[in-house]
Amino acid sequence: MKRVFPILAVLTGVLLSYALYEALVVAPTEQTMGDVQRIFYYHVPSAWTAFILFFINFFASISYLIWRTTKADIVALVTAEVGVVFCTVVLVTGPIWARPVWGIWWTWDLRLTLTLVLWLIYVSYLVLRRFSSSGQTPLLAAVLAVFGALDVPLVYFSIWFFRTQHPQPVIGGGGSIDPRMLHVLLINWLAFSCFAALVCWSRYRLEVLRRKVDETLALEALLEPRSSQTRTSRTGTAG
Amino acid sequence: MTYLYAAYVATWAIHITYLGTLLRRYARLRNEIAEFKGRIAEKN
């Protein structure tokens, strides 16, 4: 496994570089918006990746609620954390794209507001996991994640069922896309998905190690007073 | 073009910052492991 990781990291780096080249050079320039439309190749794949990570978090949380396995708990934590990073990218690149196109940075439109709510839900999930020291934290977090995941389809379908400022979906919805643009979009999505998988893998390994260290230190702390107590009682008996 | 570059730079700034926090957490963990090993070696 130690040898596979650097190879995959290099391949992902190459794929990300190629995807960047495709987005900036190969993709055709959109007629109305011009070059600024190329933000689309980072904004949309980041959103899709975040949605997938939140769905994995949902299934891992359900799995934890049923079977209470540590693995499911760690997968839920890792996917929520990396999902928040990708959702942050969506919330930052969206306004940077909106400013030159709509003339405003932000509007309280349904799609945008629901995305912000989604981000806030998962940030609160991470805050809960970080600062709660109760033994019930993974259980509470799993319940929060199950409810939080309900927002994902609402965000996705909000532009299908409601009239919003946000454009229609380019795939399967009312919008359409040039096949060359679709090709670049899918390459970028593949690149960001590989990147997300690698980051999740690293974060998973870090969390497993963190828990092992915590367990060992807790055991040491438990054994330490006993051993010193035993030493004291032995000294007492001898005296 | 400024907005385009701003969006791309912001994306990578966010990812690199997150990777930086992962590296920092990993370094802290390695320090804890080294300290623990030191304590064990002292006891033995």
Keywords:
heterodimer, A: 239 residues, mainly alpha, 7 helices, 79% helix, globular, disordered C terminus, B: 44 residues, 1 helix, 95% helix, rod-shaped
The CA-CA distance between the termini of chain A, in Å, is 56 Å
Helix content of chain A: over 70%
Number of strands of chain B: 0
Shape of chain A: globular
User: What is the number of helices of chain A?
Assistant: 7
- In terms of per-residue confidence, which ranges of chain A show pLDDT below 50 for 5 or more consecutive residues? 231-239
Order of helices and strands of chain A: HHHHHHH
Task: State the distance separating the first and last CA atoms of chain B.
Answer: 64 Å
Q: Could you report the average pLDDT of chain A, rounded to the nearest whole number?
A: 89
Biggest beta sheet summary of chain B: none
Count of spatially separate domains of chain B = 1
- In total, the number of strands of chain A is 0
Oligomeric organization of the protein chains: heterodimer
Rg for CA atoms of chain B: 19 Å
Strand content of chain B: under 5%
Total tally of structural domains of chain A: 1
Largest sheet of chain A: none
Task: Give your account of this protein's structure.
The complex is a heterodimer of chains A (239) and B (44). Chain A contains 7 helices and no strands. Chain A is mainly alpha-helical and 239 residues long. Chain A has one domain (4-223). The radius of gyration of chain A is 23 Å and the shape is globular. The model of chain A is unreliable at 231-239 (pLDDT under 50). Chain B is an all-alpha fold and 44 residues long. In chain B, 95% of the residues lie in helices and 0% in strands. The longest helix of chain B is centred in the middle third of the chain and has 42 residues, at 2-43. The radius of gyration of chain B is 19 Å and the shape is rod-shaped. The mean pLDDT of chain B is 93. Chains A and B meet through helix 2, helix 3 and helix 7 of A and helix 1 of B.
